[in-house]
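Page 42, continued from yesterday. The earlier attempt failed because a stray header line got pasted into the input along with the sequence. Redoing it now with the clean sequence only.
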Amino acid sequence: MIDPQIDPSVVPRLARAITDYLQWVKSVHYSPASCHQHRMQLESFLSFVKNSDLPWQQLFAGATREQFKKLSRLSTTAAVNGLSRYLAQQGQIKTPLPRRPQPRQLAGIYEDYLNYRQDDGQTTPRQLNTIRRVLSALGDYLQSQDISLSWLRIEQLDAFMGEFCRPLATSSCRHYRSLLRGFLSYLHQRGIVKKNLAPLLIGVPQFAMAKPPKLLRPAEVQKLLESLPVSTAR
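This time it went through. Structure tokens are written below.
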């Protein structure tokens, strides 16, 4: 028996809305990478809605977005935000989602670094907001993994960037990685971490170059050593 409170038209309606929105995104000349990222995120959102039994107007509520973001483990919901603005302009929902939640206030060394960047006279307010988002995500990740900044290792940074950049275009990942390098250099200068990890934070595409970086992660060294035969002196 079908629950009378469940509206069976919600999922087909959302699927049509997503198709229309993606066509609009393409018509206003979003980059191919951005179009692909929007499509992937909205397909995940559609799957989320199929399992939620939410009424239409609740699909684009702040609580719904946060639940979707948590379950999908996304660092951004830009495509869902964009879809909500599109539907609001079309009169299909009352109000759109905000572009992004207000960045939370950071404390300690994170806020010290933001003040340092603000005082250098070369960082715009928009850039500061972007740095704040990256540092906020990093702080949340380290807290969830019970990792102290003073014991930070490159493998942990690689894992964070892999999670943070998963839904993003390559150019965006490169930009965020550059911002994080600045923070890592600052940590080293302040003596928070003994080794400057900034030069080690590199992107996967670099390994496809003709002359890849001459370094191996500790786990890769261990794997290499374990693969060597030890039955002979050679």
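Notes: The two ends are 73 Å apart (CA to CA).
Reminder to self: strip header lines before submitting.
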